[in-house]
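Fill in residues.
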């Protein structure tokens, strides 16, 4: 049933345009570690995720972003993570260090969205994302994508969707170009 949960959320991400091709990854915390999507996997394909232990080596098949997921689980109480590549959020991250949604839902659920640096698959990105998610549910890695975390995969998906919607509103309203 684990693969069905990953497939269900993966399909939502694709339908909403939050990921493309085989970009992005997801994980769920479990006893002694977490299950994460396979490297290069299409999130809507329903492939069985790979188990990564809390410490030690990760399987070759695990997503290259397993370090981020491991760091978030080590430093927070979050139980699920969704990493996506939403176009407006990625574009917004190129010129901002912190985004403040102007729409009512974004303002209520994530009044501030931090933007952090780090190259994909590195310890730097893992540390920066985990640090940002200690006190929140969503972060954007500059030029790369969002990492959203929560109690469930649904909650992490919702924060991903809200962040993209908020960034789209910021673009359409002209607020990003004005530096607001």
């Amino acid at each position: 049933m684990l693969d069905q949960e990953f497939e269900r959320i993966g399909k939502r991400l694709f339908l909403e345009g939050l990921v493309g091709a085989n970009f992005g990854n997801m994980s769920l915390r479990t006893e002694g570690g977490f299950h994460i999507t396979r490297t290069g996997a299409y999130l809507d394909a329903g492939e069985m995720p790979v188990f990564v232990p809390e410490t030690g080596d990760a399987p070759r098949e695990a997503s290259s972003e397993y370090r981020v997921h491991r760091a978030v689980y080590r430093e927070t109480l979050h139980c699920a993570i969704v990493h996506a590549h939403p176009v407006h959020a990625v574009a917004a991250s190129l010129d901002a260090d912190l985004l403040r949604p102007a729409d009512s839902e974004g303002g209520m659920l994530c009044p501030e969205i931090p933007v952090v640096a780090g190259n994909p698959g590195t310890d730097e990105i893992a540390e920066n994302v985990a640090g940002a998610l200690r006190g929140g549910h969503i972060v954007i890695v500059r030029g790369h994508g969002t990492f959203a975390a929560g109690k469930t995969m649904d909650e992490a998906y919702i924060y991903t969707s809200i962040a993209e919607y908020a960034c789209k509103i910021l673009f359409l309203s002209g607020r990003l170009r004005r530096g607001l």
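The chain has six helices and eight strands.
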